[in-house]
Specification:
By secondary structure, this protein is α/β, with parallel strands linked by helices. A 4-stranded mixed sheet has the order 1-2-3-4, sandwiched between helices. Strand 3, helix 2 and strand 4 form a beta-alpha-beta unit. Helix 1 packs parallel to helix 2 and helix 2 crosses helix 3.
Length: 129
């Protein structure tokens, strides 16, 4: 797995090869470390061929944890069906009474755009110093 990390408290990019088996365990450890030490995490799922129910749970729990700790996390390359399932699981865990409602809160695009804006602003301010 490729891990790109700028100085601590900056952003980390993770590119797992799998969410299962030994590669999945390596990813989980890297993700835990990134959520502990980095301000923001981008998980690029380009190399992940399938995301099953366990993988969705892993991603949902990491998003919930990041939100609780005030960190940014986003997932790139996640297929549409998996995004909908991920949104549903996050919605269910945050608002257990609304699990049967329709999705459409769009947690990906607004959060990702805000994440990119903050990263760009940080880089611009660092360039001025």
């Amino acid at each position: 797995m490729f891990i790109s990390q700028e100085p601590i408290t900056s952003n980390t990019i993770l590119q797992p090869e799998s969410l299962h088996g030994s590669l999945g365990q390596v990813f989980q450890q890297s993700l835990e470390e990134a959520l502990t030490h980095a301000r923001g995490v981008i998980v690029d799922l380009l190399w992940v061929e399938t995301v099953d129910s366990d993988g969705i749970n892993l991603l949902a729990q990491s998003m919930i944890r990041s939100q609780a700790s005030g960190k940014d996390i986003t997932f790139l390359g996640l297929e549409h069906t998996a995004k909908l399932e991920l949104e549903y699981r996050i919605q269910c865990s945050v608002e257990s009474s609304s699990c049967n409602s329709t999705l459409g809160h769009g947690i990906f695009a607004p959060d990702f755009e805000a994440f990119l804006d903050r990263h760009r602003d940080l880089k611009a301010s660092e360039a001025l110093v």
